[in-house]
Amino acid sequence: MKSFSYGSGNDSLPISGGILDRSKEMEEMMKVSENMKIKEVLALGEHMLDAFMWLAPEFERLQYPKLRRAMGGRVTVAQAARVARIPLTEALYVLNLAAGSDANDLAETLRLYGRQAFEYQETNPPTKPREISDLKDADPRVTFVDVIEEADKRLDPMPKIAKGLVSLKEQTDVLLVRHPFDPVPLRDMFARRGYASWAEERRASDWFIYFYRPALSAAAIACPAITHNVYAMSAGAGKH
């Protein structure tokens, strides 16, 4: 069972690469930048869809027009990397190569990113956050929204989830969403509205995400980062 927790406000993981030491000029050196939306990347050519699907199976949904319209305008490249659970630089490397960038030039550009951009960081507390530690799925404070059927029918789950969120009235009310994958962009969106979240994969491709109002002292517990081999590739680009 996998579990992941996001805090609210400054406690959470960066929404779109805030850990990086970079300039706007550096982003402009690449055809695909971290803040581009998926729809902008796909506008570079239909072959970019294959690149997204290579990053993670979750992006196979982009093959379906309704989901492509829904996801394409909401999800950034940085968020796509987090959905795929890979370092941002790996996503940038794959997508820019697919967009026609020169591999050597791209490696040189990626060297300008800080080392943390070559690391995938996740929060993985062993137990639920204290606000929901004793909460059962059948608790009357829980509003349960299951979007597995929408996913199977290739429909946008957002209207159903939004309806569940607005039904929360009390400080202790919780929205519990069953989803086929960890919906990183959704969690970012709700974090901006003041909701923390905690997710667990109870079975393969069967995620349960809790959205709740955090206590003021609540914070995510960060696990050691995993350094990806793209760092070594870029770091060595200038050693010829």
Write the topology of this structure.
Blueprint: E1 2-6, H1 24-28, H2 38-42, H3 48-55, H4 65-72, H5 77-84, H6 88-98, H7 103-110, E2 119-120, E3 142-146, H8 148-152, H9 158-166, E4 174-179, H10 184-192, E5 196-203, E6 206-212, E7 226-227, H11 230-235
Parallel strand pairs: 3-4
Antiparallel strand pairs: 1-5, 2-7, 4-6, 5-6
Helix pairs in contact: 3-6, 5-6, 6-7
Can you offer a commentary on this structure?
The structure is a single chain. With 240 residues, the chain is of the alpha+beta class. The protein has 2 domains: 14-120 and 226-235, no CATH class; 130-212. It is built from 11 helices and 7 strands. It has helices at 24-28, 38-42, 48-55, 65-72, 77-84, 88-98, 103-110, 148-152, 158-166, 184-192, 230-235, and strands at 2-6, 119-120, 142-146, 174-179, 196-203, 206-212, 226-227. The protein has a 5-stranded mixed beta sheet. Strands 2-7 form a two-stranded antiparallel ribbon. A hairpin with a 2-residue loop joins strand 5 (196-203) and strand 6. The longest helix has 11 residues, at 88-98. The termini are far apart.
- Specify the helix fraction band: 25-40%
In this structure, how is the largest beta sheet organized? 5 strands, mixed
Query: What spatial form do the alpha-carbon principal axes imply?
Result: globular
- Low-confidence residue ranges: 8-21, 218-235
Question: Order of strands across the biggest sheet?
Answer: 1-5-6-4-3
N/C terminus separation: 45 Å
Query: Based on DSSP secondary structure assignment, what is the total number of beta strands?
Result: 7
Count of domains: 2
Report the β-strand fraction as a percent range. Answer: 5-15%
- Topology as a string of helices (H) and strands (E): EHHHHHHHEEHHEHEEEH
Number of helices: 11
Structural class: alpha+beta
Mean of the pLDDT scores? 82
Rg computed from alpha carbons, rounded to a whole number of angstroms: 19 Å
